[in-house]
Design goal:
By secondary structure, this protein is an alpha+beta fold. The protein has 6 helices and 7 strands. Strands 3-6-7 form a 3-stranded antiparallel β-sheet. A two-stranded antiparallel sheet has the order 1-2. A hairpin with a 2-residue loop joins strand 4 and strand 5. Helix 2 packs across helix 3, helix 2 packs across helix 5 and helix 3 runs antiparallel to helix 4. The protein starts with 5 loop residues before the first strand and ends with a strand.
Length: 196
């Protein structure tokens, strides 16, 4: 029966040691999703302006944090790239002064060239990610139009799920004060996670 079916952690199944074994029953996930979608729809219908403000504020905070992380990683990669240039320069000087052999120089240069090539690719990807994150804006209008389309949903359908939800993240259960609790994050299409 449907009430006994459950989702098992995908990370646990795919990555050995990546996560502990945990699951959640389908009916529980459906109940949480339906409840959250109904709250979201009610909030949008009650005050679109306040909803838009909330979404833009949350997504701005998230994108600023992501940009800071990318920029920090970019800075580290660029610094390492420059340090390798200095090391290579010193290697050539050591070779000229016969401190290292030609064979050792060739080996070390090949290794550093490979690392610089990887760093160069990483630097390009990070720059691209920073630009895309800065450009990315929440698609509030999409969710608002869905809320008007489903003003009073009576059941959770596959169509509603596909239109509203991008992904669901279920964490392993914890026991708090003798009660089993399991955190569920809902990521909406176009706007990300919204804390209501």
């Amino acid at each position: 029966p449907h009430s006994k079916e459950h989702f098992v952690c995908a990370t646990y199944r795919k990555v050995k040691g990546g996560c502990s074994s945990h699951q959640i029953r389908n009916v529980v996930v459906e109940r949480v999703l339906f409840s959250h979608i109904k709250k979201l729809v009610a909030f949008v219908l009650e005050d679109e302006e306040k909803f838009t403000e909330l979404v833009l504020k949350q997504t701005k905070r998230e994108s600023e944090k992501a940009v800071r992380n990318y920029e920090s990683e970019l800075d580290n990669s660029q610094n390492r790239f420059l340090r390798i240039d200095d090391v290579v320069k010193h290697l050539y000087e050591d070779n000229i002064e016969s401190k290292i052999t030609d064979e050792l120089l060739a080996k070390m240069l090949a290794s550093y060239e490979d690392e610089q090539s990887q760093l160069n690719a990483q630097i390009k990807e990070l720059n691209k990610a920073i630009i895309e994150t800065k450009k990315k804006t929440a698609n509030v209008a999409y969710i608002i139009s869905l809320a008007h389309q489903y003003e009073e949903p009576t059941e959770l359908t596959a169509k509603i799920l596909r239109q509203f939800i991008s992904k669901v993240i279920v964490y392993r259960p914890e026991v708090l004060d003798g009660t089993r609790k399991q955190r569920v994050r809902i990521i909406y299409n176009g706007i990300g996670e919204i804390l209501l």
